[in-house]
Amino acid sequence: MREFLSGNEATARGAWEAGVEVAAAYPGTPSTEILESLIGRPGVYAEWSTNEKVALEAAFGASLAGRRALTAMKHVGLNVASDSLMTLGLVGAKGGLVIAVSDDIGFSSSQNEQDSRYWGRFVHLPVLEPADAAEAYAMARDAFAISERFEVPVLLRLTTRVSHVKRTLTLGEREAPDRSRRGYHRDAERWIITPNHVGKRLEVRALRDAALAEESAASRWNVLEHGTDRSVGFVVSGPAYHAVREAFPHASVLKLGFSHPLPLALAYQLAESVERVMVVEESEALVETELNAAGIAAAGRAWLPPHGEITAPAIECAVSRLLGYSQVQEAKKAKKVFPRPPTLCAGCPYMGIYFWLGQLTDAVICGDIGCYTLGCGEPWNAMDSIISMGASLGVAHGMAKTFEGNGDAKPVLAVIGDSTFLHSGMPALANIAYHRANVTALILDNRTTAMTGGQDRPQLDFAQLSTALGIRPERVRKVDPYELPAFFKVLREEIKAPEPSVIIAERPCVLSREFVRRRPLTVIEDKCNGCARCLDVGCPAITVTRREREMRASGKVVEHAWVKIESGLCTGCDVCAQACARGAMVAA
Amino acid sequence: MTFDLLVVGIGGQGVLTAADAIARAALQSGYDATKTEVTGMSQRGGVVCSQVRFGQRVSASEIRPGAAQLVIAFESAEGLRWSHYLAPEGCILVDPWRAVPPIVSSGVHEYPANPIGELDSLKTKVLQVAARATAERLGDARLANSVMLGAAASSLPFPEQMLRNEVLRRFSGGALAAQNAAAFDAGRELVTQTV
Fold first, then answer.
1. Quick one: fold of A521-587?
2. What is the C-alpha separation between A193 and A105, in angstroms, rounded?
3. Which of A97, A308, A390, B54 could hold A153 in an S-S bridge, CB 3.0 to 4.6 Å?
4. pLDDT tens profile A120-151
5. CATH fold of the domain at A223-322
């Protein structure tokens, strides 16, 4: 059966055909669709876990019980999972355990660009790097067998242009899970990683490293393709393979699919058959460094873009410069058009929050990761820091403690979404409560993991949870973010309170099924005086019809803007009507 | 040789779905095809660009600037934003509809005064397709997607019917299928009138 699938869908399909029985993940671009494609598949228990570490541990638990298991995450998710990952490098796996990690090359929706292949070196894991969806599918199938044969988790490293590129591939049937592997027996020396067991496991790991090196040297995923053009030979992994082939169809190429341990013998063969060697790999110069250390003079990063995706024109340009050609073709330049950053949706409950937070000019607001990250931008500019998942509360805690007893202290707020709070915010809130840091924490509860497309998460009472973590019940407040005056009153009281407090803003995400649309609003033109306060709401349904500049007698220039409401977008949330001092916005 | 095209617009317009329909119609017509985009933050009203390549065999999925035979723009400033991808002999189908984001409404940035005029000055073929307006006339702005695909059908190197079938395959009959069929045909009409 021929199918047209993305790399993520193909990975899920390959894992399913390999007989995967347990899959656990936390969503994150560009990895989300892997688990999404496994949900509801027969014979698989698939879950959205509360964070990547929990997901990895869940998959490992299934492996320990002899089941094939998969976990999926984005590159920064693997940082969260890394504490357990380090141990899994020692204890290994029983049922096939595959860690599919997708690196956001070009950081289109991440706090950084990060090369997950380092974990292969760090943890001593085999690394498979598909070039496209068809390979992702086939490698996902192979990965479970490799994992079982060497009793080790396998890292399946995807990048954006594998995860999100659709290609055609031929699918197969699901393999029946191997029942002989099932069952669990206590094996303390193996699975309990106390210091007295580490030495033994290190010996096992060294033997495994050697065996994996032999395996990768002979792997069908590492192929030396001899070409007629011998001026530059390429060592390439991941989707960059297709870019190299586009740019240099006749070159010799060592295509790395089983890229760690590195098949050095093949690299020597390539080096002997070409004049120059160039390594093309996404993110860090990892293979390049290892080849040079092995005595192969390999060019790479110095000629290629320092970060982001490597395209065919970039490779052509790099080779021209490497070979000293003077003619380098300039790429066509883009027209200058205003930036169009993502916005909160019309009716998003977070707009009521940021309408006020944007006016707190004297407060420090520590932000977090989710849709509400957008509060850092226009028109609200209501954020001072964004670090990583769950960091808002820890950073706010440190600032509040530093400000304590300091004359020029500012109020410190933390803004965190429901899913992020459950992911990694809870320990920091317990810390705030325990050490009595004067932080006002806003938990924005829209009942879903919204930014990545609305995945489910535990439905629980955040007020009870906050109290249980040590916040005094009087300082735990629930608000409706659509009620602007009421929310502002609570916000003011909690900022003023000289102790930790939590404000829980509850409203479902507008993209969720729970959300109820109301009649759209319209602007009564006679009442609008152009004060433009409604634009501070930041709603995409409000657009400007005309602008005027007024020079006051004092010499101050005042900007006026008259607006209309796009009825197709407006959800009737009424937040702009409450922001309007003139009562100019009413239900249509 | 590959046929390279971009479908561009803003989050929520169904850009990815439209690109997927074209890629699948190309596959049905016997071509190899790839489709790619960077998603994530591009949802929520941000910039969306999906790239489709098809031909005997496609290697890289990314299109080179200056190489696209066709750009399908669901919004006028977005057409301008991606116009450097057009090949000299290429063609851009652009909806003159304007989506003005808060970053413009709040006065921080300006919307181009005449994006279609700027496109005309590029000396590539420009076809204005009032997809959004047509869709609204047909009763639902969301039909703009099918109107635009109908308008694009004659610019693709496979029978128009292949794309029409692919678009309608997504709706399991009923009123929705009929509405989209009407929208697709209205789009086809729009370009025949222009040419």
1. Alpha-Beta Plaits (3.30.70)
2. 35
3. A97
4. 999 999 999 999 999 999 999 999 999 999 99
5. Rossmann fold (3.40.50)
